[in-house]
Protein: Orotidine 5'-phosphate decarboxylase
Organism: Streptomyces griseoruber
Amino acid sequence: MTLEPFGARLRRAMDERGPLCVGIDPHRSLLVEWGLNDDVAGLERFSRTVVEAVAGRVAVLKPQSAFFERFGSRGVAALEKSVQEARAAGALVVMDAKRGDIGSTMAAYAESFLHKDAPLFSDALTVSPYLGYGSLSPAVALARENGAGLFVLALTSNPEGGEVQHAVRADGRDVGATVLAHLTAENAGEEPLGSFGAVVGATLGDLSSYDLDINGPLLAPGVGAQGATPADLPGVFGSVLRNVVPNVSRGVLRHGPDVTALRDAADRFADEIRVTLESS
């Protein structure tokens, strides 16, 4: 049975739980900080603890696939388990894999994460459009077919991104704005929210020169350790603030391995975001 579209499920989860997205990023330094070994057992303990702490209370969990893949097949097996347990607890899962390719290869990536019968099936997948937005067509089609979504890199917070995303096309529009325009077209007429979102960094400051009203969600990394705060979000996103999914990773994860401390950290960010939304 096909799921309800991701955008509708995300809108409901954000309204019920708040819009916070917590990353599951088991990189080496965090494993060490938690007193865990940098091995599969440490990886499993880390991811299981994060899921236990917050999957029942936040709207979205975002595992970073690379930190699992580096351990080979056993790491991928741990990722599969984390995805399944997070979704069973009621969180939506955005797989942060940033896949991007062409033709049958893009289709295979899509089948890995967006087909309802795939072991790694996730509610949404991050993808890169920089082989041309049309290269994402297999992922767009499969996401629609299975009630899943995409988050497409549009205006990222890393300094290197500007050389591509701010490059100006012959029509005078830059590449980032072009990606946003494609997503607006994907989401046209969808209610209450489209399923095709953009990744837009929370650290970018005033983006009023861009049309962020894509009728879809805006995944906003950068809150917490990267320097942005919930109070910064209105200045970045303006009138589309209600569609923003702020992502916090290290700002929550550094409080592990204690489950209560992780939960309290997530709750603090969620409360700050709620206050910001209510006052904007």
Q: What stands out?
A: Strands lie at 21-24, 60-63, 92-99, 124-127, 149-155, 196-200, 218-220, 244-248. The two ends are 39 Å apart (CA to CA). The CA atoms of residues 43 and 76 lie 10 Å apart.
